[in-house]
Write a structure and sequence with these properties.
The structure holds three protein chains of three kinds.
Chain A lengths: L2 H4 L9 H5 L12 H9 L21 H5 L6 H15 L4 H6 L2 H8 L3 H8 L2 H11 L15 H4 L18 E5 L1 H7 L1 H13 L3 E3 L8 H5 L3 H20 L4 E3 L2 H13 L6 H9 E3 H8 L1 H6 L7 E5 L3 H4 L7 H5 L5 E5 L18 H18 L3 E3 L3 H11 L3 E2 L1 H8 L5
Parallel strand pairs in A: 1-2, 1-3, 3-4, 5-6, 5-7, 7-8
Helix pairs in contact in A: 3-5, 7-11, 11-12, 12-23, 14-16, 15-16
Chain B lengths: L2 E5 L3 H11 L4 E6 L20 H4 L8 H5 L1 H17 L12 E4 L5 E4 L4 H4 L10 E5 L7 H10 L6 E5 L12 H8 L2 H11 L8 E5 L7 H12 L2 E5 L6 H16 L3 E4 L2 E6 L10 E5 L4 E5 L2 E4 L9 E3 L5 E3 L6 E2 L22 E2 L19 E3 L9 H4 L2 H16 L2
Parallel strand pairs in B: 1-2, 1-13, 2-9, 5-6, 5-7, 7-8, 13-18
Antiparallel strand pairs in B: 3-4, 10-11, 11-12, 14-15, 16-17
Helix pairs in contact in B: 1-10, 1-12, 4-12, 8-9
Chain C lengths: L2 E9 L3 H12 L4 E4 L15 E2 L10 H17 L4 E2 L3 E5 L7 H12 L3 E4 L1 H7 L9 E5 L2 E3 L1 H14 L3 E3 L2 E9 L2 E9 L4 E12 L5 H6 L7 E11 L7 E4 L8 E5 L2 E5 L3 E3 L9 H14 L8 E12 L16 E5 H5 L4 E6 L5 H16 L24 H8 L8 E3 L4 E2 H11 L4 H8 L11 H12 L9 H12 L5 H17 L11
Parallel strand pairs in C: 1-2, 1-12, 2-9, 5-14, 12-20
Antiparallel strand pairs in C: 3-8, 4-8, 5-7, 6-7, 10-11, 11-12, 13-16, 13-17, 13-18, 14-15, 15-16, 19-20, 21-22
The chains are: A alpha/beta, B alpha/beta, C alpha+beta.
């Protein structure tokens, strides 16, 4: 039995998670995290087929687990149930496709200009919606022609043994699919900031963390991705090199989901979990004093910061805030919403899009009332989603930090 | 600037975090999950069994109210009223006279302060009222409430069932689901259109508490105007809207005052730094990745009692404080903890930490354990909040006292 | 005083009494059954839910073993809807007597109790939560049987066949004419009225009360009372019945039944049939024994504890053994033979699994004494399923999922997925507003929150159905009954749950300040 299922019995039915669930709040297709989680779990017989499909409406944001004061891993129970559902039923082609952002990136990046133009064309979106059910209102990222790894071939190391410099001031960058294929500029700035702060950055071999696969219930494939990453990253972690990522969902996979949801055990995965840091978490722990000494440039702007669900699920608060607050003249508003609705690949699905959009309404309204210059958010799928639905630029907090440090993209 | 770490995000922790932040200090609020507000009626009970202002001075010296002091209670209430006023969710009532509000069961709930939408249901108000349920809402039964109120000699003018314009409901809804709908003005317009013809001749109408979450006072006023009558709400089974609203208000203010929320991890340990065990110089958080150290000048423990995990009752008959394993005042042995009826006073309700009048936890000899550790709220022993009707008053007064002492 | 008459009066509405009444109906007798409580309040409703394969008794009580093996197959034919075919395993652990499994297996084969040895790897594939250190595993034909369902089905069937079942009626006097019992004086507990019922024959099937009922006719029944405590875990860690393969002793079984798993049992001699207080050591012992078979129980929540009182046979002439050592087989006492009193048979002991057989044997004897030539038909007459029975996993959840959008199910008890419609039907059917009666029929309030949420809702519904009845009169007793089952487990998350119940009923609803219900 997976660890989260042990927590089923801790549920008091108190409905704190029900009231916090952003999806249940906007649709009655989803009976709520308690209902499909610890409650329904008591009825699922391992040797009989899944009796319920409503759990498929869970967006996987993880708020339920975070707000539960009794220790129930509600979201994890639900993700496992979705995995069972997928295994028992057939997975639509659409879900297979969006679960493979890296594969898409590998195919599309050599022909990026053509791919980008055609995929964003209205008829193409219409076709995608009609044929496989990808909502034409959902944002689709732009492929880059030259992936990050190609831009920094000299920093790619297969093993820590090849590193020549001071190991104590080395970090391993887990760039994820997004910084490699879609937003390589973000990766460049990450490296620049870390180097400015005195760190050497190495890029270990890696593939997609597997979250899109896991969210779409494709556990076996997700586990293969996880195993590959564990094999590649463990030598670095065991050398005491921190693994730093800017994508909050990728780092959460390394820290949490590999062990808790995919059920991977062993010393390697444990070491990786404890050695992995969100970019800002790393800064506030390892270079707190250096950061306090930085004189940031003024940034005369009005912005709203929305810490994404996946970051909040790290259980580290919002470490970027303390740094953003140091930037002079940056007028910072805080999001009053738990979730923007995107839910990774959830909002791309034709049938889920209206729910996802409705979840995001609260945030979109807050943004439109504030007359902002831009929005700040750590997670890429949330950034694309918020940008699409508000028309404002949405930046990773490190892009703002880079700007205030005169680091040009 | 003092760096304060507060553990626990119930009424006590949130209120304390605001007090600290608004005095210009850095606050980090760590909590494993959310507190008990959503499970509560959302009013401020100070002393349910008698007039609060008179009863409190006669309490035992070890009672949390006595330890915190009357001044702290009054100051806390003043700040609380300021917060709720500014959030446009005012709490009428006073410490010198309890309101008497109907419960969903039709019993009478004496409470000192209640949000306006609840306070308008005061049973001794004199205006006749009607109770109305909402079709298909399984958490409110107006017939039952009315019968019980009538048995207690309270006149209920009539009882109604009101439809809601939802034509396609796939699953049962909770009051929170309805509240999200009432937040929308087009929904209220539609509801008012459907309800109005059924409400002729009614001056005061009691409904289950579902009238909005984000901006409830506006929802109340808007709906009252559309329907042309006074509305009052009755809290229902959890998630209880009035409690949830208070949580939203406190959280929103805390966020905007710069309180740093760390939600999720458990506090699993303490670091003493160079203090030789006299001070808590930081705590260890068990985050999903691994343990992380968080340092602070002052630590306030507001983890609550048994319901939210501040106290852990063990099979072997021990009761433990869950964060620092501080000494707990209790009877050893499971057999002593409960009685045979859930409606009686329970011995376990009074268990908790012993503190001095500085809200510092005490060791067996009665000496403070750490110089900079303070305790407030449900974790404190010496009070049976359920039977006294004193839960929220103790939370606010002790939080106020702890912050006042901690910041010097 | 009203006087009625019938051919057969059955005293006691447990599985045995109802079984006798049903058998009598099928043989064409006019039957009245009286029960002092509601259905399932006695020993039949307070058992662990096991449909015995017979394996448990192959060494200690071979007759019972054979009877169980046969009746197991019969019940699967006649009441399949009350049974979950879980299958069963007998596990030997390294600390159990090493020679026992072979002796046990040989006895199974000799007695015709189906058993086959499987590898521990196979067992762990089937049930991954089992202790991997088990040494031997045998597969048997155990199942779980919902006794509430069974009792309701029998009652419905008796009524359909023209018999009468009177609940909340207590026999206060047995009236003799010479050395023959001719009538019983009965008190209707709802109205406090007395009535007399004359009958040609009487069957005392009152389980642990058999001695007290017999004493109304100045007869002594050699009965000993063995209290057995059980603990239900909030979820099922296993989906097969798990038995410990060792000589019968306390804490040797785990039965998955409905949504829970029941750890059983202890055996403590008590003096009164109502003596069901559970000692802390019993709970600790059952949990510790359970963890040996299924280690993850250590992380699970014990939900509720209860005790049933077994009526056991202890002849006054024999040596006075511990109740654990007394035989489990059925005892039928013909008081004409034994005490020279005509017209009365007492039946007790035995197992729920063999209730039908016991009834058949009783009725054979009754018919012989009454010179009636009718034969038993119960073994080949399937019982009709009552509309409300669907307790097997995952039925209730599956049913909710297919409900159409326009037919809002209104789940009142969210843990056990009991709908408003089912409660309304049950309240009408039971002609009572007692929520505890509804609970036993529907499993209302029997899940993790132990009625913390649904008691209020059910009270509201009950009141809407009968607005003139004392408002929420049934709420407090219902809550108190649920609380009693949690008190022995009052630590950890169970105590947290109890505290949530108090927050809801005392702080939110202020139940304790309601005026006393007026009678």
């Amino acid at each position: 039995m997976n660890l989260p299922l042990f927590t089923t019995d801790l549920c008091l039915k108190c409905n704190i998670c029900t009231a916090a669930c952003p999806v249940a709040a906007v649709t009655d297709l989803f009976p709520g995290p308690k209902f499909v989680g610890p409650q329904a779990e008591r009825y699922r017989h391992p040797r009989l087929s899944m009796p319920d499909v409503s759990v498929d409406w869970c967006s996987g944001c993880g708020i339920c687990s975070r707000v539960c004061p009794h220790g129930v891993a509600v979201a994890e129970i639900n993700i496992l149930a979705k995995g069972r559902l997928t295994k028992e039923r057939h997975t639509p082609l659409r879900d297979q496709l969006i679960a493979h952002p890296e594969l898409l990136g590998r195919i599309a990046s050599p022909i990026a200009p053509v791919a980008n133009t055609s995929i964003h064309l209205r008829p193409a979106r219409w076709l995608l919606e009609k044929t496989i059910g990808i909502s034409r209102h959902a944002p689709i990222p732009t492929f880059t022609r030259i992936p990050l790894r190609k831009r920094f071939r000299d920093r790619c190391f297969d093993t820590p043994l090849d590193i020549k410099h001071d190991i104590d001031h080395t970090v391993a960058f887990f760039h994820g699919c997004s910084s490699n294929y879609y937003e390589p500029e973000l990766g460049e700035q990450t490296i620049a900031i870390l180097e400015r702060l005195g760190y050497e950055v190495v890029i270990p071999p890696q593939i997609c963390c597997g979250l899109p696969l896991q969210s779409n219930g494709l556990f076996d494939a997700a586990r293969r991705h996880a195993q590959a990453n564990i094999t590649w990253l463990a030598p670095f972690a065991k050398q005491g090199i921190p693994i730093v990522g800017t994508s909050t969902s990728c780092t959460l996979m390394l820290k949490h989901d590999y062990r808790t949801i995919l059920g991977i055990r062993g010393e390697d995965v444990e070491t990786i979990a404890t050695s992995t840091y969100d970019f800002f978490e790393f800064l506030t722990i390892f270079v707190k004093n250096e950061i306090n000494r930085i004189k940031f440039n003024s940034l005369h702007a009005r912005a709203l910061y929305h810490p994404p669900c996946k970051l909040r699920n790290h259980g580290i608060g919002a470490p970027a805030l303390s740094i953003l607050r140091q930037i002079p003249e940056l007028q910072l508003h805080l999001s009053e919403s738990e979730c923007c609705g995107a839910g990774g690949t959830y909002g791309m699905k034709l049938e889920k899009f209206p729910v996802a959009y409705e979840v995001g309404q609260g945030l979109f309204n807050q943004i439109s009332q504030l007359e902002l210059d831009f929005v700040i958010c750590d997670s890429e799928t949330c950034r694309w989603w918020i940008a699409k639905h508000t028309g404002l630029p949405v930046y990773h907090p490190l892009e703002i930090m880079a700007r205030a440090m005169d680091i040009q993209p | 600037m003092t760096e304060v770490l507060i553990v626990g995000a119930g009424l006590t922790g949130l209120f304390a975090s605001l007090l600290v932040a608004e005095r210009g200090n850095a606050v980090t609020l760590v909590a494993q999950g959310r507190g008990g507000l959503e499970l509560s009626h959302g009013c401020i009970d100070i002393w349910g069994r008698a007039t609060p202002s008179r009863a409190l001075s006669r309490l035992r010296k070890s009672h949390p109210y006595r330890l915190a002091g009357t001044a702290a209670l009054h100051a806390a209430l003043e700040f609380f009223e300021e917060i709720t006023q500014q959030a446009e969710y005012p709490f009428p009532g006073s410490i010198s006279r309890n309101l008497h509000l109907p419960t969903a069961l039709g019993a009478i709930h004496p409470t000192a302060l209640a949000p306006q939408s609840l306070a308008q249901g005061d049973l001794f108000d004199g205006t006749p009222f009607t109770l109305a349920g909402i079709d298909n809402l399984r958490d409110f039964y107006p017939q039952l409430a009315a019968s019980n109120l009538r048995r207690a000699g309270i006149a209920v003018q009539s009882v109604l069932d009101l439809p809601i314009p939802l034509d396609d409901t796939r699953h049962d809804f909770y009051t929170s689901d309805l509240a999200h709908l009432f937040d929308k003005s087009n929904w209220r317009e539609e509801v008012a259109r459907v309800w109005k013809p059924q409400l002729i001749g009614i001056k005061r109408l009691g409904l289950p508490a579902v009238l909005g979450l984000r901006d409830p006072q506006h929802v109340l006023e808007d709906l009252q105007e559309r329907l042309g009558l006074t509305l009052f709400e009755i809290p229902t089974l959890p998630p209880s809207l009035p409690g949830l609203r208070l949580e939203v208000i406190l959280r929103r203010r805390a966020l905007n005052t710069g309180v740093h929320f760390i939600e999720g991890p458990r506090v699993v340990g303490r670091i003493d730094g160079r203090s030789d065990g006299r001070r808590v110089s930081g705590v260890v958080l068990q985050t999903v990745g691994g343990p992380r150290v968080h340092t602070a000048d002052v630590v306030i423990l507001a983890t609550g009692g048994i319901l939210n995990g501040g106290l852990v009752f063990q099979q072997d008959g021990r009761v433990q404080e869950s964060v620092f394993d501080l000494p707990v005042n209790y009877d050893q042995g499971r057999g002593y903890w409960t009685t045979t009826s859930p409606l009686d006073s329970q011995p376990y309700s009074g268990y908790g930490l012993l503190v001095n009048d500085l809200m510092q936890p005490l060791d067996a000899k009665g000496a403070p354990i750490f110089e900079n550790l303070y305790v407030a709220g449900g974790l404190l022993g010496g009070a049976d909040r359920t039977m006294e009707g004193s839960r929220q008053g103790i939370d606010l007064a002790t939080a106020y006292r702890a912050v006042e002492v901690a910041l010097g | 005083m009203p006087v009625l008459s019938t051919q057969l009066l059955v005293i006691g509405g447990g599985s045995t009494g109802l079984g006798v009444a049903w058998d009598a109906c099928l043989r064409g007798l006019k039957v009245v059954l009286v029960e002092q409580g509601d259905l399932g309040q006695g020993t039949s409703g307070r058992y662990h839910g096991l449909l015995h394969s017979g394996g448990r008794y192959v060494i200690s009580d071979p007759t019972s073993a054979c009877d169980c093996a046969v009746e197991n197959r019969v019940l699967r034919q006649i009441v399949p809807h009350t049974i979950e075919d879980t299958g069963g395993l007998f596990l030997a652990t390294p600390t159990d007597p090493i020679d026992f499994p072979d002796r046990w297996f040989a006895a199974c084969q000799e007695l015709g109790v189906s058993a086959e040895e499987i590898t521990t790897a196979e067992a762990l594939r089937l049930e991954p939560a089992l202790n991997p250190r088990i040494s031997r595993v045998f597969r048997v034909q155990d199942g779980s049987l919902d006794s509430f369902d069974l009792l309701h089905t029998l009652t419905a069937e008796i009524k359909r066949a023209g018999g009468q079942v009177w609940l909340r009626h207590r026999v206060e006097k047995l009236i003799l004419n010479g050395n023959t019992i001719v009538a019983a004086e009965i008190r209707a507990l709802d109205t406090d009225e007395l009535l007399t019922i004359g009958a040609d024959f009487f069957v005392n099937a009152t389980g642990p009360w058999a001695g007290q009922v017999a004493s109304l006719a100045d007869i002594k029944v050699p009965i000993a009372l063995g209290k057995g405590s059980m603990v239900a875990m909030a979820t099922r860690p296993i989906h097969t019945v798990i038995n410990r393969c060792r000589p019968s002793s306390d804490g040797d079984i785990i039965v998955p039944v409905g949504t829970v798993a029941v750890l059983g049992t202890t055996d403590v001699e008590v003096q009164q049939p109502t003596d069901t207080t559970i000692e802390p050591w019993e709970v600790d012992f059952l949990l510790a024994q359970g963890e040996i078979l299924v280690p993850q129980l250590a992380y699970q929540r014990p939900l509720r504890a209860w005790a049933g009182v077994r009526p056991l046979y202890r002849p006054t002439t024999g040596e006075l053994g511990e109740t654990r050592e007394l035989p489990r087989s059925q005892i039928i006492l013909d008081h004409a033979d034994r005490d020279g009193l005509q017209g009365l048979i007492s039946v007790f002991s035995g197992k729920l699994t063999i209730f039908r057989l016991m009834a058949e044997q009783v009725m054979d004897l009754v018919c012989k004494q009454m010179n009636i030539a009718a034969v038993c038909h119960t073994a080949e007459t399937p019982l009709t399923m009552t509309s409300r029975s669907f307790y097997k996993l995952p039925d209730r959840l599956a049913k909710l999922e297919v409900t159409t959008s326009h037919d809002l199910p209104q789940v009142v008890c969210e843990c056990e997925l009991v709908t408003r419609l089912a409660i309304e039907e049950a309240l009408r059917f039971a002609s009572t507003l007692d929520l505890d009666e509804v609970r036993r029929e529907l499993r209302l309030g029997m899940g993790p929150c132990q009625a913390g949420f649904c008691a209020f809702r059910a009270a509201g519904i009950a009141h809407e159905l009968a607005p003139t009845a004392p408002a929420s009169g049934g709420l407090t007793p219902f809550l108190e009954e649920r609380w009693r089952g949690m008190v022995p487990l009052g630590w950890g998350h169970t105590l947290r749950q109890m505290e949530l119940t108090r927050r809801i009923y005392l702080e939110l609803l202020q139940t304790h300040s309601l005026p006393e219900p007026t009678k």
